[in-house]
């Protein structure tokens, strides 16, 4: 199998990597700037992204017709868990700090590793297990620090934790479906399903989806364009040219960038527990990524998280 690095960009991948890292850091900031319910934010983020993909999606119609019923069920499940991820993680920002929420969300690769072992019998390397333990210690440090501040902050941490679990399930489904469906078609269908899940949720709970101020619609559009198109879609594209580990390590910039933006824009100072816990999580994830890098290189796709 050809490694991603065998294809060459006409320019340095550093530039799109930096753009992607900056873009995903704005996701929690934009969520904070909106006063709309998180289920409405999530619905329009996915809807606008789906619309932006639509012109190219028509070319995928023949491939879409070839998808089996089993794979359609998997795609629907992936969309459901992506919607659940957004609902939980975006809601966490109403209760806890941007730093705590995004650092805990970074545990996603750890949960994917555990799920892959339980479901697919993928045996992790010892270094990956060590990294998982270190990262979980960091998460507990943040949680213990936040619970000493308030029950509300701890509740937000729990929402982010379960949001990370939900997107890990989404990733595990993607791991299977992307063997048979292209990454573009996968994203196109899953984003559509996620939009539908949010629409059903909003209708069932009586949350209005219209009548918001012009500023809110701008935030909805920016959520689709900045962290999604200029963030995660750039990372997906870069997988053709760089190692998957490079992309995974780049995603670790989100809690760092988001925390710095939280300080500048919302005066959310980072606590000692967040610094210690964040350091543990980042070190743990670096160990995990190093273990991944020791494995044979495969061309794989990243599902959308934050």
Structural write-up:
The protein is mostly helical and 306 residues long. It has one domain. Helix 5 crosses helix 10. The longest helix has 27 residues. The chain is globular and about 55 Å long. The relative contact order is 0.23. The N terminus is likely disordered. It is found in: Endomembrane system.
Structural domain tally: 1
H/E element order: HHHHHHHHHHHHHH
Beta strand %: under 5%
Mean pLDDT, all residues: 84
Shape: globular
Percent range for helical residues?
A: over 70%
Q: Mind summarizing the main beta sheet? A: none
Poorly predicted sequence stretches spanning 5 or more consecutive residues: 1-6, 297-302
* Termini Cα gap: 30 Å
Taking all Cα atoms into account, the compactness measure Rg is: 19 Å
> What is the number of beta strands?
0
Count the DSSP helices: 14
Give the structural class.
Answer: mainly alpha
Report a brief summary of the structure.
By secondary structure, this protein is mostly helical. The chain has helices at 14-25, 27-33, 38-57, 61-65, 69-92, 98-105, 108-120, 126-149, 151-177, 183-205, 214-238, 244-251, 253-266, 272-294.
